[in-house]
């Protein structure tokens, strides 16, 4: 299959996607935002589309949690341009409310937020191929935003196949991936589950051909006290490593832009 060429752009930030829904995108995005703040970076956050809202005010929503974690003063309607009540894929959630998701509107909001922050972390919805519009899925949104990707995956049985399928789809679109972050979203209750987890970690580190981070520890109190628990996660070695990867990417992109600008200026003087 022919690879697409992703156009260059301001990629100071990352898009956090996952191998499935409920894997831990919000946890990783929030912990990363907190850790970046501790490193002196003004990190903004965005959740372009959210479904399954339980409160009209958005209290307890993923977007609200990200806003708190980042210490952001951005309006919730900027952080989350589209919110739907039903816990469905965005395409159906929007149809049932007789609404449409607009890619141009999301991208305009995204670019405004980019200008306001040194780093912008964007959390996706569902997985890479989750439909958000009749002819577009999450991968199309990533492609248009021109951000490198952090993939969050399960560390339990089945995690290998889900992770490799997601990575394969990203590579086919020539979308750069910063890391695969493994998350322990359920407690390990048996010796068999522990052996399966160890196998997943070992094999993915061997075959993924990229940094494999984690697993992040299971947090039983996450739903009861989200901010406290993600603040703890922000201090772990795994999230610290992720911070280093994000900042290294920023430095690399900055150097590349300077070289391109110098080359362009040199040509203009000829």
What does this structure look like?
There is one protein chain. The protein is an alpha/beta fold. The protein contains 10 helices and 10 strands. The protein has one domain: P-loop containing nucleotide triphosphate hydrolases (Rossmann fold, 3-Layer(aba) Sandwich). It has helices at about 25-40, 60-70, 75-80, 90-95, 105-115, 140-145, 160-170, 190-205, 225-235, 235-270; strands at about 15-20, 45, 50, 80-85, 120-125, 130-135, 135, 150-155, 175-185, 210-215. The strands form 3 sheets. Strands 2-5-1-8-9-10 form a 6-stranded parallel β-sheet, sandwiched between helices. The protein has a two-stranded parallel sheet with strand order 3-4. It has a two-stranded antiparallel sheet with strand order 6-7. The protein is globular and about 50 Å long. The model has no long low-confidence stretch (mean pLDDT about 90).
Q: Which CATH top level class fits?
A: Alpha Beta
Mean pLDDT: 90
* Largest pleated sheet: 6 strands, parallel
- Report the β-strand fraction as a percent range: 15-25%
Q: In a few lines, what is going on in this structure?
A:
The chain has helices at 25-38, 62-70, 76-79, 90-96, 103-116, 138-145, 159-172, 191-207, 226-234, 237-269; strands at residues 13-18, 43-46, 49-50, 82-83, 119-123, 131-133, 136-137, 149-154, 177-183, 212-216.
């Amino acid at each position: 299959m022919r690879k697409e060429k992703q156009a260059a752009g301001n990629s100071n930030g990352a898009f956090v996607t996952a191998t499935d829904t409920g894997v831990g995108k919000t946890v990783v995005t929030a912990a990363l935002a907190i850790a970046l703040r501790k490193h002196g970076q003004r990190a903004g956050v965005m959740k372009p589309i959210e479904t399954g809202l339980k409160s009209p005010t958005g209290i307890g929503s993923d977007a609200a949690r990200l806003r708190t974690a980042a210490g952001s003063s951005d309006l919730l309607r900027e952080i989350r341009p589209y919110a739907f009540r039903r816990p469905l894929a965005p395409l159906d959630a929007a149809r049932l409310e007789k609404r449409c998701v607009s890619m141009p509107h999301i991208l305009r909001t995204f670019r405004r937020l980019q200008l306001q922050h040194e780093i912008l972390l964007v959390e996706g919805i569902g997985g890479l191929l989750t439909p958000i519009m009749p002819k577009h899925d999450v991968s199309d949104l990533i492609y248009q935003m021109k951000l490198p990707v952090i993939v969050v995956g399960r560390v339990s049985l089945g995690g290998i196949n889900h992770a490799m399928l997601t990575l394969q789809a990203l590579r086919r679109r020539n979308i750069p991936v910063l890391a695969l972050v493994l998350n322990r979203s359920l407690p390990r209750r048996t010796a068999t589950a522990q052996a399966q987890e160890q196998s997943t970690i070992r094999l993915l580190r061997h075959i993924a051909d990229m940094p494999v981070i984690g697993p992040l520890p299971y947090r039983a109190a996450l739903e009861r006290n989200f901010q406290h628990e993600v603040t703890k996660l922000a201090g772990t070695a795994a999230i610290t490593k992720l911070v280093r990867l994000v900042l290294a990417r920023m430095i690399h992109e900055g150097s590349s832009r300077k070289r391109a600008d110098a080359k362009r200026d040199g040509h203009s003087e000829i």
